[in-house]
Amino acid sequence: MYIPSTFSEADAKALAGLISQYPLGLLISSGTSGLLASPIPFLYRENENAPSLVAHLARANPHWKDLAGLSECLVVFQGAANYVSPDWYPSKQTTHKVVPTWNYEMVQVKGVPTIIELTDWLGGQVGELTESMEKRRQTPWRPGDAPSDFIESQMKAIVGLEIRITDMKGKWKMSQNRLPEDVRGVVHGMSDPTDPYFNLRAAEIVSSRNPVK
Amino acid sequence: MYIPSTFSEADAKALAGLISQYPLGLLISSGTSGLLASPIPFLYRENENAPSLVAHLARANPHWKDLAGLSECLVVFQGAANYVSPDWYPSKQTTHKVVPTWNYEMVQVKGVPTIIELTDWLGGQVGELTESMEKRRQTPWRPGDAPSDFIESQMKAIVGLEIRITDMKGKWKMSQNRLPEDVRGVVHGMSDPTDPYFNLRAAEIVSSRNPVK
Prior knowledge:
The structure is a homodimer. The first copy, chain A, has a single domain (5-84, 102-176), classed as Pnp Oxidase, Chain A (Roll). Chain A is built from six helices and eight strands. Chain A has helices at 12-21, 63-68, 119-134, 148-156, 180-190, 200-209; strands at 8-9, 24-31, 34-41, 43-45, 52-58, 73-84, 101-116, 158-173. Chain A is elongated, with a radius of gyration of 21 Å. At the A-B interface, β2, β3, β6, β7 and α3 of A face β2, β3, β6, β7 and α3 of B.
């Protein structure tokens, strides 16, 4: 991913935070079946200087067989994304030197994949992933709510995936290259419920990424 | 992408519709620089039996140089996506045989990339892309609003990309494999503003993809 320095985010906490907020990553590889991409929910594990991503795939999904023979894969996490109309920039009215673009936040992780078929590992990963998603809810569901023989049969239908992270990069393209008045114009435009590109979450991120503007 | 028949969507209009609604695709290739993924807005062109995706990239983005030497690339478009809590299923209260999952809509396109550096082609693509985004707005911005020497300098900073489509697949994983009462539970759960996974757009798609439920 091309990352001009203005948009680069290297802070591991910020990158892990985006993964936690948008856990449905796109798992990408190029193996014997060619280019493959599968949407899979991931967990980021810090592991003291040996960070990893962990997930599970349906055994029926042939992607895991390709991964088993590979030394590298890529996982892409995308957060908020929004079209930016040049009409939102006040500088449009003066210089007219403006063009459309997109704002987005994205984390890309490269690593070494390992397929894991140990029942204990799978139980741990499924439990941890479920807790990470359900803890925000008032009535969190737990795997223990289901009959144990049912959970056992479900475990047989999945395989585990651990990706030892070798590279992790973040790009927050959030109007940091614009003049202060244009940044304010973008926030205003994205906060306008009558605009088809109304997006309050994206507006908040543009604000927080441009604190002095 | 693994697509059980229950979730498969082959209708070209539905696939093109998702691309139009979520034009920011993830352009993926495996070339001399290894696995690369770039978020890029795309346009789908029907071209009478020879459909293509067209886009432009910043010349400073090295991804286009890798693409120039490749015979295949992949573009992934993701639409609505949402966590599905088993707590939403009424069958949770009876059989308890339920587990969490994710719903999502996704289109994956494979094709043959060609890099295009013709000014006329670039002008046409930029104009068409801008119109597709701005036509929804009350005060559509047009490239002609900017000074021509400015637009010319912008054109020099981009390269064109045309992908002749060889394969296009759609997956709408929207609870079609659930019992009618569980589908209604999912729609109800996603429509509950007090739930952290509140998502009205996703709820609408679950409804429309399960018409007889």
